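Please go through the protein record below and explain what the C-alpha coordinates say about the fold. Record follows.
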Amino acid sequence: MVHDRGKIKWASLMLPEHVEMLQDFFSEEAPKEKPVLNEDYINEMELTLQQAIHDKKKVELSYYQNGSIKSVIGHIIKIQPTERKITVQEATMKQKVPFENIVAIRTIE
Protein backbone atom coordinates (compact mmCIF):
# COMPACT_ATOMS: atom_id res chain seq x y z
CA MET A 1 0.00 0.00 0.00
CA VAL A 2 1.36 3.43 -0.97
CA HIS A 3 1.28 6.15 1.67
CA ASP A 4 1.18 9.32 -0.41
CA ARG A 5 1.72 12.56 1.51
CA GLY A 6 -0.09 14.67 -1.10
CA LYS A 7 0.91 18.32 -1.04
CA ILE A 8 3.23 17.87 1.92
CA LYS A 9 5.97 16.27 -0.17
CA TRP A 10 6.14 19.35 -2.45
CA ALA A 11 6.18 21.92 0.35
CA SER A 12 9.93 21.56 0.93
CA LEU A 13 10.62 22.53 -2.70
CA MET A 14 8.67 25.81 -2.53
CA LEU A 15 9.78 29.14 -1.12
CA PRO A 16 7.72 30.47 1.79
CA GLU A 17 6.72 33.47 -0.35
CA HIS A 18 5.27 31.15 -2.97
CA VAL A 19 3.37 29.15 -0.39
CA GLU A 20 1.90 32.37 1.08
CA MET A 21 1.00 33.66 -2.39
CA LEU A 22 -0.78 30.40 -3.27
CA GLN A 23 -2.70 30.43 0.03
CA ASP A 24 -3.81 34.02 -0.64
CA PHE A 25 -4.81 33.10 -4.18
CA PHE A 26 -6.97 30.17 -3.09
CA SER A 27 -8.47 32.02 -0.10
CA GLU A 28 -9.72 34.92 -2.22
CA GLU A 29 -13.38 34.80 -3.08
CA ALA A 30 -15.07 36.18 -6.13
CA PRO A 31 -16.25 39.76 -5.49
CA LYS A 32 -19.79 39.98 -4.17
CA GLU A 33 -22.37 42.59 -4.99
CA LYS A 34 -23.54 44.92 -2.25
CA PRO A 35 -26.77 43.55 -0.74
CA VAL A 36 -29.91 45.62 -1.21
CA LEU A 37 -31.63 46.20 2.13
CA ASN A 38 -35.37 46.71 2.46
CA GLU A 39 -36.90 49.53 4.52
CA ASP A 40 -38.06 47.27 7.38
CA TYR A 41 -34.60 45.78 7.84
CA ILE A 42 -33.01 49.26 7.86
CA ASN A 43 -35.48 50.37 10.55
CA GLU A 44 -34.66 47.25 12.59
CA MET A 45 -30.93 48.02 12.32
CA GLU A 46 -31.54 51.61 13.46
CA LEU A 47 -33.43 50.35 16.51
CA THR A 48 -30.63 47.89 17.34
CA LEU A 49 -28.09 50.70 16.95
CA GLN A 50 -30.02 53.00 19.30
CA GLN A 51 -30.39 50.26 21.92
CA ALA A 52 -26.68 49.42 21.73
CA ILE A 53 -25.72 53.06 22.25
CA HIS A 54 -28.19 53.56 25.10
CA ASP A 55 -27.22 50.34 26.92
CA LYS A 56 -23.50 50.65 26.00
CA LYS A 57 -23.49 47.15 24.54
CA LYS A 58 -20.87 45.68 22.29
CA VAL A 59 -21.98 45.21 18.67
CA GLU A 60 -20.93 43.25 15.64
CA LEU A 61 -21.16 45.55 12.64
CA SER A 62 -21.05 43.91 9.20
CA TYR A 63 -20.26 46.16 6.28
CA TYR A 64 -19.59 45.96 2.56
CA GLN A 65 -16.12 46.95 1.33
CA ASN A 66 -14.34 46.25 -1.95
CA GLY A 67 -16.51 43.32 -3.03
CA SER A 68 -16.69 41.49 0.29
CA ILE A 69 -18.52 41.61 3.61
CA LYS A 70 -16.31 42.46 6.59
CA SER A 71 -17.08 42.64 10.30
CA VAL A 72 -15.92 44.70 13.22
CA ILE A 73 -16.74 44.00 16.86
CA GLY A 74 -16.64 46.73 19.47
CA HIS A 75 -18.46 49.62 21.12
CA ILE A 76 -20.00 52.46 19.14
CA ILE A 77 -18.29 55.59 20.41
CA LYS A 78 -19.46 58.17 17.90
CA ILE A 79 -22.07 58.73 15.21
CA GLN A 80 -21.24 61.48 12.74
CA PRO A 81 -24.40 62.42 10.83
CA THR A 82 -22.66 65.09 8.74
CA GLU A 83 -19.99 62.67 7.54
CA ARG A 84 -22.51 59.78 7.56
CA LYS A 85 -20.15 57.49 9.49
CA ILE A 86 -20.18 55.41 12.65
CA THR A 87 -17.01 55.07 14.72
CA VAL A 88 -16.52 51.68 16.39
CA GLN A 89 -13.76 51.07 18.91
CA GLU A 90 -12.37 47.59 19.41
CA ALA A 91 -9.67 47.54 22.10
CA THR A 92 -7.28 50.35 21.08
CA MET A 93 -8.27 50.51 17.41
CA LYS A 94 -10.97 52.84 16.09
CA GLN A 95 -12.66 52.22 12.77
CA LYS A 96 -15.04 54.47 10.85
CA VAL A 97 -17.74 52.77 8.79
CA PRO A 98 -19.93 54.71 6.32
CA PHE A 99 -23.70 54.40 6.88
CA GLU A 100 -24.36 53.27 3.31
CA ASN A 101 -21.93 50.32 3.62
CA ILE A 102 -23.54 48.79 6.73
CA VAL A 103 -25.39 45.56 5.97
CA ALA A 104 -26.05 44.19 9.49
CA ILE A 105 -25.85 45.17 13.16
CA ARG A 106 -26.30 42.83 16.09
CA THR A 107 -25.65 43.27 19.79
CA ILE A 108 -23.31 40.94 21.64
CA GLU A 109 -24.27 40.03 25.18
Observations:
- The mean pLDDT is 85.
- The beta strands are 58-65, 68-80, 85-90, 93-98, 102-108.
- The helical segments are 8-11, 16-27, 39-55.
- DSSP finds three helices and five strands in the chain.
